[in-house]
Protein 1
Amino acid sequence: MRTSARLTPGANRLQGGRNPYLFVSPFFVLFAIFFLVPTLASLVLALYRWNGVATPEWVGLSNFRRLFSDPVFWQVARNTTFYTLASVLILIPLGLVLALGLNARALRFKRMWRSIYFTPVVVSAAATSLVFQILLSRDAGLVNGLLGQFGLGPVPWLQSRAWVKVGVFMVVAWRTLPLLTVYFLAGLQAIPKELHEAAMTDGAGSVRRFWYVTLPLLRPVVLFVLVVVTLNSIQLFDEVQILTDGGPANASATAMHYLYSRGFERLRFGFASSVATLLFGIALSAALVEARTLGGLGIDREG
Amino acid sequence: MGGDEVTITMWTHDVQYVEFFTEVANEWAASEHPEIDFTFEFEIVPSLHDVVLANIAGGQPLPDLVGISEFHFPRYLVDDLIEDHFVDLTDRIGTDYDRVVQGRWSIYEWNGKTYAVESALSAVAYYYQPAIFEDEGLVPPETWDEFLESGAALGVEGVASGVLTDAGNVFEFYLHQRGGRVFNEAGDFVLGDPGNRQAAMDVLSLWREGLDSGAFTVVLQSEFWGPSQINAFDQGSIAGTIMPDWYADAILKPQAEHMAGHWALAPMPVWSDGSGLATTVYGGTGFAITKASPNIDLAWDLLRYSYLTVEGQVKRYQMTGYYPTLFEALSDERVLVIEDPYFSDQRLAEVYGAVADQVPIWYQSPYRLAFLSSAAENLPLFFDDDLNSEEFLDRVIQAVETEIEFYG
């Protein structure tokens, strides 16, 4: 019995010509308007002095010279590096562990646990930060209250230059970890069960199965999570602005906070653009290095 | 002037201004312009100044009136934006200028012109808990020397008499009380001038001595306005705080309702050598009129009616708790007789009225935010004694001078 379908005369035209481009164009139009054009404009604006209203004034590389000669910039750069490394080295492994737990066959009420774990993601950064500002209060906060029950603290989470980054990171972790867990969970559930069964048949225990079956197949997800976490850390702003406004003494300030306080608040948009340009370059480089290191996404280029 | 139907719009950050202006505007319309059918659109706009500046940049509509806080006023001075987009009120104010505490005009002046009318005296006083002082046989200090002395006595008991924080404008207001200035009338940075530098050093010495003896404690900005400090007041570990008139209604009463009757107000301690002023100021919001307004004359008339008449200022005080800036209103019986139950029925206007003519005259600059940021960034280091007074001051001065050199 013949199974081939009879194609209508016009069907071939769907696969060629301008039609494929028309179908994908909405995304690229929006991409151009809301990303490409502003990015290029920012790159150009970094070479100007502009208050947002008057005609921009050409200053060449002065904004960058000012940026690199500002000790505060280097301080916020170190802070941003701290948040990035902490997020990559702590949150990613933790997210994977949580996902493994939420994916375990022995876990009952899976949907309930997954919903609970996902809740922080749906609460805005502003609301979360405002609540944590109270929770992390040195004398009136719940966190120190709990620590006190064990004879510890009080810890000046937001009042100490030594502790403030830890305090901010706790809030970042609260919001970020559930999202990473969901990404990993989706990746784990995409791994065919047969592969695990085959490995078990060959005598592989849970550790070996994780190392030789799960992890390699999770590589695309790991790369995705790594890029997302890196980019989010480089752009960290909301929590810092609300919890500490970068203080005390810029100990918690990030590069994005620096861009906002030095650029937007003082109407120095050219300078703000120079910071944005630098961050863009760093983020792009980081993403490319990560992609190269982890061997790309493993996508079939022939589609 | 509009025709029969006119819409007056206003943007502000504070709901109290919306309520006040709504009530006064209706009175004004009925009494002063019964021939006009007004619509008043008074709104709270989040991130008000970002929105206003973005609208200026984008050529988008602006309201007739904008409430510009003194903290954000420097942003409008960048490249003289204020001159291009806001109405010079100098001539309209005219002789009313001398009826108002001058220090509340100067903060909205630029290049010899006045652009906004202030909403509140914002004078600073000493909020203290009398019971704590009485328990130790002490009286509230009248001078800084007395403050340090009684503060040291209380400090031994683990009780601070005042609170410092890493806000540049707190350092600034202490400096103003000492008689120093950061910027002059022309907007030049003068903190490094000998007199101003000495005033700053005096303030820092006062703070250092107070911190070392326990008279002052530190609560950083991340917790200064929240429950942590209120908790400390409640537990008696902080006996008082030096804050402006709006602190009571904005912070203390809403967050420490249960402490009603535990507080009293005293004048801010003064410098024992007699120099400096009896008070200083912290905060304030001035209402300005945009050049884009199609109703400049009417907007000014409303502003004048609300803010430059005794009746308007008395009503504003009654509705918002923001003290009058008109000398006549400050001495008006309706203001003076108000007894505040939170302060054990004390007549707070008597405290502020007595020092109103001592409100410092100081000036703004587009570089003020650079000064405030640098001071805020270095104050924690000073508090921790990682920077001495000279080092702190040198850092702040250098930061501002670098900014001026780059953008000047």
Note: The CA atoms of residues 48 and 58 of chain A lie 4 Å apart.
Protein 2
Amino acid sequence: MPASGRAPPAAAVVDARYALGSRRRDVVAFVSLALLVVIAAPFLRVYYRVTVAEVTLTRIDPDGTRHRLAVPDEVWNARRRVVAGRQRPAAMLRSQEALIRRFMATDARLASSPPGTRFEWRIRYAENSTRLDRDALIVVSPSGEAHR
Amino acid sequence: MTALAARLDRVLFAPTAAVPVAVFRIMLAVVFAIVCWPADRATTGPDTGVAAFDSVSASVFLTSGYWWIVLSLLVLFGAGVHPRVTGWVAVAVLLPSMPLAGRQQSRQVLLFTLLAFAFLRSDAALALGRRSRVEPVGPGPRWPLLLIRVQLSLLYGVNALAKTTPDFLGGEVLGAMSRMLPNFSVDLSGGSVEVAGVPVPVWLLAVATVLVEYALAVGFWFRRLRWPTAMLGVLFHLVSIRIVTIRYLHLASVFLYTSFLLPFDRVEADGRAPASHRGAG
């Protein structure tokens, strides 16, 4: 101790035991971060479910003749399949139906079709399975009306 | 202090060694830079569904200026220039970019690692801007590393748990994913896959995957099993790479093995903890 009797300044010494200078602060930081890592843990899941789907498009003439058409990329392409894979079936169907409606609203083939022509979109799908045993049908009539 | 509290105190506040902590800091900076750098355009626009946020954040986080700032912070952090400040500033800068699509899991893992690790005074060794007053007292307590270890276990644990379903263990989910997701390089929807010329049922592959992930979630916590667990983990990721491409998460996971493998415990020449820590329980 110096001759003056005063202790050396304590602030210059870093307490190696604690990251934040006191046990209490360290415990608070530890508990907070522990809670954070546990709460955020579910977001670390990589793959745990998948929706498999396939989309087909059929034109039905007024006399009932069916013609299988290629599915346009805007509605169902590789990129969309990825999204479908990561979505729940209900979400996949919602987004797929929105894409179909948007496509049919602008596509020329609908306007140029003879009266009575319908376009049938069939989405076969399954959750966590490759057996596509569920399906949804979206039929677009010449008036542009789509119904499931 | 009860025996349990004393033991908890030892677990949380045992002192760490300066050099392994510094080595971890340098590796963290390098791995973070590799994972975050959008060189291959794997990181794309935000996908929060909130249009206003997505458009503003895309004009910030997808610019090269933003990533150069991030890289500069990581270089400073890795070099040991005020690593607490640079580490936490890097966390603050990177946090808003979390909604970016692509590599979310690896970025989340490393962001939390950086957040926790920055609590250590990692500039006690191998640092450019080392502060002399830090040297005698070391990097600090072990609890930040403990959190990083817990996160590694959670990473494997939540994935193993999520896969412990009849659909996954039966191989159906793996087959379906290989059909729907573009990062699968092998088609498993046929029910079997050839490994070294031998057909292996997909259900067996699924069961093995889950068992290995449980082993990796738990094995590191047993001192004698650490190296065998690490070897199992490396083998698991090497095999996985041939089936599914999630390379950044492979890298981040294997990097975190070092949080168990590096000799972080600070031991004095006499084999005991420093005097300032005795009596801490």
Note: Strands of chain A lie at 51-60, 66-69, 118-127, 134-140, 146-147.
